[in-house]
Write a structure and sequence with these properties.
Shape: globular
Radius of gyration: 15 Å
Number of helices: 3
Order of helices and strands: EHEEHEEHEEEE
Oligomer: single chain
Distance between the termini: 10 Å
Strand order of the largest sheet: 1-9-4-3-2
Helix content: 10-25%
Largest sheet: 5 strands, antiparallel
Structural class: mainly beta
């Protein structure tokens, strides 16, 4: 792959979930794309090491056409973040479709420290995965 080019690895949520497991992968960056409608979540993909590779890849989960985005950081985080392993706060334990999805919009959630509440909840028109 040429430097600077991103390879599309999956073009839908079902494609992503069917081919990738984000459990134990770590969110490294969250940002809006230049069009301000797509949310990009960069993830250090843990399973590359488990599959025998020397390094991990940074994969980009791109939520396209975002209509609603909510973040919820656990209320149990100590006030002094210096004493916390920040990586553990952003380690993915679950990536799933949430209630409220319809034909034209998807409601998706990424869960980190708490299985009962998503760290990130997104209502979007599509999601894809790039390397």
């Amino acid at each position: 792959m040429e430097k600077g080019k991103s390879e599309i690895m999956a073009v839908s949520f079902q494609d992503i979930i069917g081919n990738f497991d984000f459990t134990d992968s770590v969110v490294t960056e969250v940002r809006w794309s230049d069009n301000l409608m797509d949310l990009i979540v960069n993830v250090d993909y843990y399973w590359d090491i488990q599959d025998g590779h020397d390094t991990t890849r940074i994969l980009k989960i791109i939520f396209e056409g975002c209509q609603k985005v909510d973040f919820q950081i656990s209320g149990e985080i100590p006030l002094c973040l210096d004493s916390v392993n920040k990586e553990s706060l952003f380690t993915i334990v679950l990536f799933k479709e949430l209630t409220g999805s319809s034909g034209e919009q998807q409601h998706l959630g990424i869960f980190t420290a708490d299985y009962s509440k998503p760290w990130l909840s997104v209502v979007c028109t599509n999601v894809k995965l790039k390397e």
